[in-house]
Amino acid sequence: MAKNLEERTQLITHLKANGIDTAFHYQSLHKSAFYATQAKSKALPNADHYTDALLRLPLHAGLSEEDVNRVIKSINLFWD
Q1: In angstroms, rounded to a whole number, what is the distance separating the alpha carbons of residues 28 and 44?
Q2: Nearest-5° angle of CA 11, CA 17, CA 20?
Q3: How far apart are CA 35 and CA 26, in angstroms?
Q4: Number of domains composing the chain
Q5: Is the dihedral of CA 51, 8, 58, 65 positive or negative?
């Protein structure tokens, strides 16, 4: 997990440059359109942190061990 939105964006760029597609899709529920109509807005900094920091890595049945190792290597290079 990245430390923040900026680091996640940098990691996505790094992985994409190495041919690895990633995605992010977690949205803090308290910031969703539905929640805004149902309850008072409340600051939830931990939820906001995960919204900005989580990243979904490739995961599917066709992923080979070689692919997994390439993803791991690319992530490790980013952190070094």
Answers
A1: 8
A2: 75
A3: 15
A4: 1
A5: negative
Please report which helix (H) or strand (E) contains residue 13, including its range: helix 5-17
Q: Confirm whether pTM is higher than 0.90.
A: no
Here the CATH number for the domain that contains residue 40 is 3.90.1150.10
- Which residue segment(s) compose the domain that 24 sits in? 5-79
Q: Which of 22, 17, 20, 30 is nearest to 2 (CA)?
A: 22
Q: Which pLDDT tens digit goes with each residue over 30-72?
A: 888 887 777 666 788 998 899 999 999 999 999 999 999 999 9
